[in-house]
Amino acid sequence: MTATKAPIEPPPTPRAVRRPGDRIFAGSAKGSGIFILLVLAGVAAFLISEALPALTAPSEDIPGGEGLASYIGPLVLGTLLGAVLALLVATPLAVGIALYITYYAPRRIAAVLGYVIDLLAAIPSVVYGFWGLAVVAPTLVPFHVWAADHLSWIPFFAGPASTSGRTMFTVGLVLAIMILPIISAISREVFSQAPALHREAALALGATRWEMIQMAVLPYGKSGVIAGAMLGLGRALGETMAVAIILSGGAGATVNLISNSNPSTIASNIALSFPEATGVGVNTLIASGLVLFLITLVVNMLARWVVNRRADFSGAN
Amino acid sequence: MAKRIEVSDLNIYYGNFLAVEGVNVSIEPRSITALIGPSGCGKSTFLRSINRMHEVLPGARVEGKVVMDGQDLYGADVDPVNVRRQIGMVFQRPNPFPTMSIADNVIAGNRLNNKGMKKSDAADLVEKSLRGANLWNEVKDRLDRPGSSLSGGQQQRLCIARAIAVEPDVLLMDEPCSALDPISTLAIEDLMAELKERFTIVIVTHNMQQAARVSEQTGFFNLNGVGQPGRLIEFNPTEKIFSNPDQKATEDYISGRFG
Q1: Which sign, positive or negative, has the C-alpha torsion B249, B255, B257, B259?
Q2: What is the CATH code of the structural domain delimited by B5-254?
Q3: CB-nearest partner of B93 from A197, A216, A315
Q4: N- or C-end of chain B: fewer Cβ atoms within 10 A?
């Protein structure tokens, strides 16, 4: 029986030679990939399991006494306000710095400037916090007063102006400086890799330097700038120490950037409240951490989507 | 339209290094002038000095004159950007902008001068330029696709369409076929024969058969040794260069005795 069956079985396909170097490398690469997924899953599982009691607890047990949504809501608003303000200020500045370093500055100045910008990233955030509190906040008080006088028709500048400068506005600017090196370093990298082939094509058509940058550098670097901006946004969303030091937070939901009553941010609220939190209070803080985790996840997915939307035209093919 | 270029006593430097020395040549309008010679002899550098593209490299400068129909291209008040708008260039490797569609690639140069071009005018110009580059029938159904979706030969013709869309006076081609297969090369050579009715064409090529096939005039560049400047050894009608050159070095080169 087996003897008659044997011939119709397909001949064994010749197996590719497996070299130990390939196997070790493939295995370790796969292992690294799995490891990062496990860590992520572990963090998510911890956040969810610890946040569950807060989700099911009666609303009067939640700090504030009005339920989880009204506790976390203002924190989410504060987190987004500060981070988005930082992103809006930092991105154009970082792109400008990156373009100056890659295409305008004399080589020696470019090298020094690039080094100095990178140095910004090496300053600990607690130093930024104290600098923001001691220098930036008082310096910005006159602007707060001016904005309250002249721009109060914009909800963001409704006033009354803070006299200490410890506002969401100041936080946004300090966060902008903190994320500047991240965005400008990545932008610089992608701008300098814009192919000479296409830069020459633009110049040969009679483009000025700025037109050449618009035709051949910015479109090529766009996805890199977006990626850098999202990394920066991630840092701004999660920044704890600097915000905790500068911001006089804890007030309810408001988009007013320049008054003394500001919503706190998720990360700084956790840092400030955790030492005294007990029982469901701890679960509530962890639930807010879960929300921050989800916000960051959504931001990154959005960035991916934006980058991939016109992949055909990205210049990567 | 097509203009004559007179070059006199042109020296081209990169910093202190003299790359090309003492070029005197007159390039006729409505004809194809081929530049041949071994690698590193300065023919591409000379070509790029005609539209001041060599200045893209820091430290590059010239001595001498390049005059196009009475206009000194290196005059003190001449903006290199304007020179490049009058003198188009096609490069060795096809370089359509990957972030633009085929249609946008064609009119990229026109957009620089005329931001608010009407849609119908733009469409007409795209069709006219692509027809001029013998590419229209192949791409008319996918004008909104990226330029990088085309084959190498099509991409090079797209680059030619882009260069002629701005109606330049002169078209410079820096080894335009060296990255292409023989069929695509033939298509580009046929196209050049049509384009010379309207433009002054200067082509650098490593392919001597190509120089013999397409050009009216041929210039032979050579250098005495590494580190020496390149020189224009001989400039004559193509027939003469390939049958009875004046210089021994030219004859040695085209007959394959060196280089």
Answers
A1: positive
A2: 3.40.50.300
A3: A197
A4: N
